[in-house]
Design a protein that fits this description.
The chain is an alpha+beta fold and about 525 residues long. The chain has helices at about 50-70, 100-105, 110-130, 160-165, 185, 195-210, 220-230, 240-250, 265-285, 320-325, 335-345, 375-380, 400-405; strands at about 5-10, 10-20, 25-30, 35-40, 80-85, 85-95, 95-100, 145, 155, 360-365, 415-425, 430-435, 440-450, 450, 455-470, 470-480, 485-495, 500-510, 515-520. It has a six-stranded antiparallel β-sheet with strand order 1-2-3-4-6-5, covered by helices on one side. Strands 14-15-11-10-18-19 form a six-stranded antiparallel β-sheet. Bound molecules: ligand 3AM.
Length: about 525
């Protein structure tokens, strides 16, 4: 067991509550006021240089100051910040309870009523913070605490999450756990409170279903799905009311403009969904009045209770054209293919490589021009059907140039270029990625692994470039030094970049246990 300090600042440490990637959370007591509080330490030593550390501390205090003005029952109140033995810490309200992450780990998923209750409360807390210009940027189950007894949901880490993540982030680089990130966050675009509402949508889905909506075994494939894929359909579960599927669908809209504008609107939508479900249930009860006695419905008293839903609680509609053509990311290469390629490329590697290294590129090709105009194609990724007849939807508006290229209607006959976004990720210590299209180098990206938010070393960066639409040979070469030995992993693939369609190139280079480079392409 680690040494538990007796004191941090003026606070007496009582016990360790838990630990995260960035530090430890203690239960403590303020001897002056006699108040119990929680103290979170932020350990970044070894991750940052001296200068960076100073800069980090300054930012940490600035952000804590900003978050310190937030007083809301659904936000953990920050009482104090300080530095103890060079380690920044934050003293905050102690919440006698459990993180949502722990609950989900133990229980798999929550009852619909409780999940809705949590989302409602978090939405209220977010609305309050967003009105004051503060975006959380890291809404995830670990940062939502549920108080024992009362069920109060409280958002933790306002300010800190943002600083710790952004401190380790350079321009254009994405670090951190992407599972709950919004598309604009994954792409490194500017974001506002609606990004938090997207993340909350992911949390909501996870609470209801027990798994996340955007699948993927690797970070890059999850990123791909967040930006371009559709959420996994909700299971045919009669306990999940259909109107809730619409609420989640809106929360998970790719474009911020298609989401609820703020937390209050989300709360109203949840209430609407609730009353719709009640009305539908009442109607069906009335209709069934003459029929044999129905089975006892869900509880009719107390907390909001959703009657059983229609069984088709899925995201609206059949796959659109783009959904059908969107290719799968390279998260599931066949065993056979992987091992064959692994063997093939093993020859390229210098013997004796022992470090684990994973390099992974996910390229997303967004058609910019028209071949045959396919109005439903690129925009379909972001389009969603109206949710409820009574609730007019705002038209999703592209939030960035990247998206604009996708969403624009084809205007000319000839296809010119496609915009390709490559997300490169590696666990190799340092090296260089080169990407060639038809032998012409499109990317030359040096990388140097640094500590990522998951505590491991790595590097991730997104780059966009243009290619003419058509068939191309794409080759990726990753060179790196592992224990001072040079290694190289590479592979190439024919890829068709088509206008009006979306496709993906994924290249995975593994240097342990054997060299392996895989490119997966589908669709296009
Ligand atoms: O995941 P569990 O519940 O075991 O609940 C948080 C988590 O524990 C707890 O610290 C652990 C690591 O994040 N925690 C975080 N902030 C807290 C707070 N303000 C807190 N517990 C009480 N009050």
């Amino acid at each position: 067991m680690e040494n538990v300090p007796k004191k941090i600042g003026r606070y007496t440490i009582l016990e360790t509550i838990g630990r995260g990637a960035m530090g430890v959370v203690y239960k403590a007591r303020d001897p002056l006021i006699g108040r119990t509080l929680a103290i979170k330490t932020i350990t970044l030593s070894g991750l940052l240089s001296e200068g960076q550390l100073d800069e980090f501390k300054a930012r940490f205090f600035r952000e804590a100051q900003a978050a310190g003005v937030l007083h809301h029952s659904n936000i953990v109140t920050i009482h104090d910040v300080g530095v103890e033995n060079g380690v920044p810490f934050m003293a905050m309200e102690f919440v006698e309870g459990t993180s949502l992450a722990k609950r989900l780990k133990e229980e798999g998923r929550l009852k619909v009523e409780e999940a809705v209750h949590v989302v409602r409360q978090v939405a209220e807390g977010l609305a309050y913070a967003h009105e004051r210009g503060i975006v959380h940027r890291d809404i995830k189950p670990d940062n939502i605490l549920i108080e024992n007894g009362t069920g109060r949901a409280v958002i933790a880490d306002f300010g800190v999450a943002h600083v710790t993540t952004s401190e380790l982030t350079r321009t254009g680089e994405i670090l951190g756990t992407p599972f709950f990130m919004s598309p604009e966050q994954v792409l490194g675009d500017p974001l506002d409170g609606r990004s938090d509402l997207f993340s909350l949508g992911v949390v909501f889905y996870l609470m209801l279903v027990g798994r996340r909506p955007f699948k993927g075994d690797t970070i890059s494939s999850v990123c791909y799905h967040i930006v371009h894929g559709q959420p996994e359909p909700l299971p045919q579960d009669p306990t999940i009311p259909a109107p809730l599927a619409s609420v989640i669908e809106t929360m998970l809209c790719k474009e911020p403009a298609g989401r609820y504008p703020d937390g209050h609107a989300l709360v109203r939508a949840l209430d609407d969904a609730f009353s719709q479900t009640r009305a539908a249930a009442a109607l069906s009860e009335a209709t069934l009045d003459l029929a044999p006695a129905p089975q006892a419905g869900p509880g009719a008293t107390g907390a909001p209770t959703f009657p059983a839903a229609r069984p088709q609680a899925t995201f609206a509609g059949a796959p659109t054209a783009i959904q059908q053509t969107v290719v799968q990311p390279p998260d599931v290469p066949s065993e056979e293919e992987s091992s064959k390629k692994g063997l093939l490329v093993a020859a390229l590697l210098v013997l004796g490589v022992t470090a684990i290294a994973v390099a992974f590129i996910l390229g997303v090709v967004l058609a910019a021009g028209p071949g045959k105009p396919k109005p439903a194609a690129p925009p379909a990724v972001t389009q969603q059907k109206p949710l409820q007849p009574s609730q007019p939807r705002q038209e999703p508006a592209p939030s960035s140039a990247k998206r604009q290229a996708v969403a624009e209607e084809p205007k000319h006959e000839a296809v010119k270029h496609c915009s390709v976004t490559v997300i490169f990720e590696t666990r190799l210590p340092d090296g260089r990625l080169a990407l060639f299209v038809d032998g012409q180098q499109k990317l030359d990206l040096p990388f140097l692994a640094r500590r990522m938010v998951d505590g491991r070393l790595g590097f991730r960066e997104a780059r966009t470039f243009e290619v003419p639409a058509g068939k191309h040979e794409v080759r990726a070469v990753v060179r790196a030094l592992v224990k001072r030995r040079p290694i190289e992993a590479q592979d190439s693939k024919q890829v068709i970049f088509q206008a009006g369609q979306s496709s993906v190139i994924g290249i995975e280079a593994r240097a342990f246990p054997q060299a392996e480079v895989v490119i997966v392409t589908q669709g296009g």
